[in-house]
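On clarity, I found the account of how folds are encoded harder to follow than it need be. Since the whole study asks how a given chain folds, the encoding of that fold should be made plain. For illustration, here is how one protein appears when written out as sequence plus structure tokens:

:::
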Amino acid sequence: MEHLHHIKKQLFFLSIFCCLTLQIGCMANRASNKIEVDDKYKYVVYKIDSVNNYYLIYLSSEGKSYKIVSKKEEVTKCKKIKLGDKYNFSSLDRIIKPEDYIPKNVATGSPLEFVPDCIKFDEQTEICRERGMDNIYMTKNLAGLCYIEIK
């Protein structure tokens, strides 16, 4: 009889332990979901410019700056980006790809000396990366100045 009482006592403590573990796990999961939601809009638009048929959108995130090139397009109903607003850009695609310019069989002091700072987009338009920026980017999240949310 005493042995049965001891087993019931252990089962009681085990069930309390399981409930507490489950509750702590749920709280941690909620906290991690909150971080994802807060972190969703991490790029701030700090400058919008244009050259010929292209918009230049300057973003900052976590101390880094990005220059986005977006072809001017007429889009009827859209969410136009605004200075100071935050957005989520699902992917920023490099326009200048160093691997396309660095020769494979040439010994050199600095392979990056072959990588251009500017790219021609058309006959009249050459866009260069800015000082302190590693590249120029494009994104599927923009059509002209219209923000497209990609899920």
Notes: Residues 13 and 39 are 39 Å apart (CA to CA). DSSP finds one helix and eleven strands in the chain. Confidence is low (pLDDT under 50) at residues 26-39. Helices lie at 2-39.
